[in-house]
Amino acid sequence: MNKPVKLLLVFAGIYGLIGTIMGAHMAGAGSYALRPIHAHVLVVGWLSLFSWSVFYQAFDVKYNALSKFHVWTAIIGTTGLILGMFINNVASLGLPDVVTLIAYIGGGVILLLSFAAFFVQTVLYKSDK
Q: Three-class SS string for 13-59?
């Protein structure tokens, strides 16, 4: 298993576990305050990272600068978006609103760059067949 596959797969597993724990907590508590964060953890964290790990496993893509950029912006952007959402919407931690909003938006922008890098990766991909 090559490096981007394993790395993305491990982070997908982490986010899958976090998302299911959040879902179980919400169901048990009867409170759905974490619903948007829970959805992003599972869709962006688990599903997107997992699908990208499958992409790198299924297609012979060189682990070059674009791949590294894609993988690391995916991990950093997902983490930043989810933490930013949590801090901005649930637990401000006493931080000024502008700080929590910057964390939220910053993670989202980094994740957007990751999706753009993946798009470029798919356009540049050339099959040997």
A: HHHHHHHHHHHHHHHHHCCCCCHHHHHHHHHHHHHHHHHHHHHHHHC
Which residues, 6+ apart, have CB-to-CB distance to 56 below 8 Å? 2, 4, 5, 8, 67
Say if CB 50 and CB 15 are below 8 A apart. Answer: no
Q: Could you tell me the pTM of the whole model?
A: 0.89
59: left (phi over 0), alpha (psi -120 to 50) or beta: beta
Q: CB-based contacts of 101: which residues, under 8 Å, 6+ apart?
A: 88
For residue range 79-129, what is the model confidence (pLDDT) as tens digits?
999 999 888 888 767 888 888 888 889 999 999 999 999 999 999 888 776
Closest among 73, 69, 101 to 85, alpha carbons compared: 101
Six token digits for residue 95? 């931080």
